[in-house]
Amino acid sequence: MRMSVPLRRLRQAPRHLLVCEKSHARHARSRHAAHVRDHAYNCRVSFLIPECGTLPEVLKSTIADVGEYYLLRNLSLHELVTHEFIDTFVKKGSCHALTYNTKIDQDNTAALLPTGKLILSVDKDTYEELGLQGRPSQYSGKKVMRYIITIDLMDPSFHPDSKKHKRVLWALKEKKPLEFDFLLAWCNTGAEGSTLMSYFPKNQIQTLKPKITFSTLRDLQCPVLQSNELQGKPEESCSTEELFEWLGAVLNQVSLDNKSFSFLSTYCCPQPNTIVEQAFLCTITGFIIPEAIIQLLEKLCCYFDEPKLAHWLTLTVHGFADSPVSWRESEHGFHKGGENLYNFVVFRNLDYWLQMAVGTNDDCPP
Amino acid sequence: MEGLLYGRLPAGAAEEELGAQPQGSEEAKAFVNAFLKRSMPKMKDEAIQDMLTRKAVVLEHYFKKKKKGNRKKTKGFTAKQRRELRLFEIEPEQQRYAIFLPLHELWKQYIRDLCYGLKPDAQPQMVQGKLLKADLHGAIVTVTKSKCPSYVGITGIILQEMKHVFKIITKEDKLKVVPKLNNVFSLEIDGFISYIYGSKFQLRASERSAKKFKLKGTIDL
Prior knowledge:
The complex is a heterodimer of chains A (366) and B (221).
Chain A: H1 5-11, E1 17-24, H2 32-38, E2 42-50, H3 57-65, E3 69-76, H4 83-90, E4 94-99, E5 109-112, E6 117-123, H5 124-130, E7 135-136, E8 146-152, H6 163-175, E9 179-187, H7 196-199, E10 205-208, E11 211-223, H8 240-251, E12 273-288, H9 290-302, E13 312-319, E14 340-347, E15 351-358
Antiparallel strand pairs in A: 1-15, 2-12, 2-13, 3-9, 3-10, 4-5, 4-9, 5-6, 6-8, 7-8, 11-12, 13-14, 14-15
Helix pairs in contact in A: 2-9, 3-9
Chain B: H1 2-6, H2 13-18, H3 25-39, H4 45-52, H5 79-85, H6 97-114, H7 124-133, E1 140-146, E2 155-161, E3 165-170, E4 175-179, E5 183-189, E6 192-197, H8 205-208
């Protein structure tokens, strides 16, 4: 019996994408920093170093330097488009803001990118009431239930007397006041100015520190990797997909034993593998800005300056499942898990693999 | 008695009693002709004679043709002519908000009369029921919801209501033509705010007064 096309599509697994690229960390045209910078909202960074018992001091201080972030309660959205805010923060550094505890597939969500773009992802009814021009969401199907509004705060035509600015302010202040809890982070380059803490009232803003956990994994089975063999070679090295899968298992503490009596998982480490006596796993959770990740990646590359036993190490960064964007301004949605993450595998010779993965309702990573 | 009454007069009685004289047949003919001629001077002699020959009359129903008046009913312009003449368009120099403020005052008065004075404790259902049938020319309305975001926030006095559009003059003296479809309008009078779902309101003002609105269907845009 033939199945109609939409029914057949229902039986398929939802689409997911894994993009993989290889380059050298010191290569002049390497895009690793750009990729990290484009991924603005990161909620979890973890790195795994095989054959490492204690963390070098350099890395420790880098982790401690991962900046603090702020939680702003009940902030009216129009405060982010006032000129005072734009002049003090958006134009003088990179300002990251993301609504907290809002669900991308049912609530209104807002995000302020470091490029100065304010992105609102609003449902149909809010869009109709708001009166700001937007475009239908890419993943909404025939009957559009979600719209994306992009406001460029850095646009020179967005000056305080412009019609556009007045309209945006009117819409967000009088027409349809939207209130959110925001996660905020701001890093300015050099110039000292007022801080977010002093800008917003005390009872509204709260400073939070990223949560850092260390753990040492004993007798870990690690796949053997060769930097120039992305696809892997039978009996010699594992492919990137196999590594990605294995890494997911390790980060989630899935047992790799393949015991016959385990009903939860029969996953085992891909072949060929080696047993590593101890591996260091560090996880940082919070609202982490890309600049901190670039710094961390740089320090991790420096780890290989001195001869080490490890052949490679990994750095995995998870994005927020409910952020309206993944890379740059490409739309992000929550279909089954809302995953958007990337993973660096840095080899001893500073070659690296970059794996970028997204779920169903996502544009292809850059 | 009856026999006496209807019996013939005795011969000579008529002459004696009444002085009437019997006429000869020739005289009688001449008299009838003269009489007819006198009473119907317009008729021709032959026609009179014709009538007197007592021809059989054919009994048939014949329609009396109504006499058409010479004056033709003044016919209006056709829709096309109206459009060409721009009869219903407001001239640019007349498009000023201030001109239409008295109209708005008038409209407010009209609605108050319609709703029995519009007391603050009036039932909103009653007010809405009346507004539904009321004329909206002169009302101040605001577009609160729209599928097209550019329409949102337009406020002004309704100048014309057509089947599918409202023509609204804004405070900035701009004439805006706002379609009813996919728009929600809000209308405020003395603290009562009513929302008009334009998609369900696509009627001419005159037709609307007679229309029965059903409480059915979705009001989603």
